[in-house]
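Table S2 (continued). Query chain:
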Amino acid sequence: MTRDISVENLTKDEAQAELARLADLLANANTAYHTEDAPEMDDATYDALKRRNVAIEARFPALKRADSPSDQVGAVPADGFSKVTHAVAMLSLSNAFDAEDVEEFDGRVRKYLGLPADRTLAYTAEPKIDGLSLSLRYENGELVQAATRGDGAVGENVTANARTIADVPTVIADAPDVLEVRGEVYMSHADFAALNARQIDSGGKPFANPRNAAAGSLRQLDAEITRARPLRFFAYAWGALSAPLAETQKGAIDRLADLGFSTNPLTALCHSSAEMLAHYARIEEQRATLGYDIDGVVYKVDDLALQDRLGFRSTTPRWAIAHKFPAELAWTRLEGIDIQVGRTGALSPVARLQPVTVGGVVVSNATLHNEDYIKGLDSKGNEIRGGKEIMVGDWVQVYRAGDVIPKVADVDLSKRADDAMPFAFPTRCPECQSEAVREPGDAVRRCTGGLICPAQAVEKLKHFVSRAAFDIEGLGAKQVEQFYADGWIAEPGDIFTLQDRYGSGMQQLKNREGWGDKSAQNLFDAIEEKRAIPLARVIFALGIRHVGEAASNLIALHYGTWDAFEAAMQAAAAQKGEAWEDLIGVDGVGTVMAGSLVNTFAQEAERASIDRLVAHLTIAEAKRAGTSGSPVAGKTVVFTGTLEKMTRAEAKARAERLGAKVSGSVSAKTDLLVAGPGAGSKAKKAAELGIETLDEDGWLTLISGA
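Corresponding output:
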C-alpha cells in the first residue's frame, strides 16, 4: 500500500492515492481532536501524517487536493455552542522538524522578500504550548466575547467559560478600542495530576493528558464546571485591532504583558537561524521542568511590516513556523514481510513487527519502501545503512518521524540470528499472479495485470468515490470492496446503473445485510445527485497516473468543457503538433503528465470504460472566477527575466489574485509577457507571435488600480 512507501520513492499516481488517504485520515483526526476532544491518535502520529502530506505536496505540487489537510485548520465547531465568525481567521502553522527545515524557512523568507543572506533579520522564538487555542475580544477594555479556533473561520462561543480563567482579565485599561487577544488555554502538570485524582476519587474517568483535560474543561456547556477546573492562559498573538500594538512581534507581546496578560517568559529575540536553533536547544533542555506541556518552538518574523508583506498561504502564514520536537526511536524484531498491491499495481513491502511502543503508540507495521531498500540500496544502487540487508528475524530500528507509519531505519547485525532469512521479493503479483515487472528508472515493481488484477480494480474504484473525486455519500471504501467482491460493480460506470440492476427484483440492495429501504434509497439518491459533476472532479476521478487534483483543476480551467478536453487528448495522441504543445504549455503540466493523459485516451479498453462512464454524466463547464475591475482577469501571463521591485513569487501570487492565469511558457494563447532584465527565448518567441510585452514598471502600472 502507498502508506508503506517513503515520500522519495512514491510515483506520482501513488502520491495521488496517498494524498487522498491522508485527507480522510487527517479530517477524521481533526474532528476527533478539535470537535470531540477525544483524539484517536497521538500528536506524534498526527504530525507524522501531516508532515508526510506536506512532503508529498512539496514533491508533487500539481497533485495538491482541493481538500488538502494543508488547507485545513481545526474542525467545524461542535453542536451545543453558538458560533462565532472570526474577524481575522485563526490559522495554523507549518512545521519544521530539524535544523535544515529551520534554515530553509529563513531562506524562503529572505527569498520572498528579496533580502540578501548577510542582511540581519530578527525573529521571535517562543515555546509552542500544547493546549487549546482561544481568541478573546475586548471592546473599550471589556471582554465581550471568547471563541475557540473551530475550523479557523468559525469557532465556538465560550465567553462564559473564559471568564472563569484566572489568567483572562475581564477588564483591561489603556487598550485599543477593539483588541482580539489570542493564545493557548492549558493545564499545568501539577493541576492535571490533582484533577485526575479528584476524578478517580469521585468515580469519574481520568483524562488522558493535560491537553485533553484543558480542551474538555473549556468546552463545557456548564461554565461552573469550567470554573472548577484549573485552567491557565498564555497570550502570544492577536486578531482584529483598532490600533497597532507595536511595530514588532516582540514589542506587541510586551504590550500584551503590560495590559495584564500572561506571556511566556521564554520568548526571545533571535537574529539568525543559528540563534533560533540555539534557543530551541535551551527550551528543549528545560522541557521536562517547565511544569506544562510544550511540543516545540515557534519562530516568527519580528518586524510586523515584513509579516504583512509576507502574507499568508491558504491556512498558514509565510512569516512563522513551528519547530516540533523530534520523534522517538525503538528497536524490535522483524517477524515477517508482507506485500501489498496498490491502485497502479505497485508492489509495496510492509514489515510485520513484534509490537513495540514508539512515541506513545504501539507499532506492529512499518514501511520497507521497495526491494532495493530491503537490500540496503537506494534507487540508484548506492549503499544505505552501510549496505546492510534486512532479513526476516532481524532486530531492527523503527523511526516515527515524517511517515504515515513508522519506517525501518537500521539493522543491528550483532543480534542477527543464525536462522535469519533473506527476503525474496516476488516477481508475480500476489493478488492475480500476473508478472510483476520493474521498468528501467522505476524504483517500484508493478503488477502487469491491469484490469484483471482485483487489487488495482478495487483501488481505482476507491479513488473514484474519494472525497476530491465523486464523493458519493454512503459509497466509501468498505462498500466499494463489497460491491466489487459480489460482482455488482467492476468499473466506475457501473455505479450509475446500480439502481437499475439492484433497486428491484430478487436481488435488491435493501435486502443486503446492513442495508434497508432508507439506506438503499439514500445511496441511490446520492449517486443520482453526482450525475451532474464539475469537469475537474471527473478528470481527477479517472485516476490517470501523474494527474492529481491540482493538475485536474488547471486542465479543466484550460479546456473548459469535457468535449474540448476529450478532443484535445485525441488530437495530441501523437505527442507532437499544436494540440500537444498546447497541453504541455498548461502551467503545471509537463511531458510526463501530458503523456499519461494522452496514452490513457489512446488505450482502447480505458477509453471504452471512460466513454461508458461519461454517458451517464452531465459535466459542468469549468469557469475561472471573475475578478471585477482587474485588467488581467482571465488572461494568460508569463513572467521572464529578473524582476527588481518584487520577487517572482510575489508577482505570480498577485497576478493570480487578480484573476490571471500564470503560465511557465509562451504560446499562441499567451496574452501578456512581463519581461525583466535578462529575458531570453521567451521574449523572442513573444515578439515572433506578436504578444504584448511589458517591463516590470509597465506591469505595475497596469495593475496599480486593481
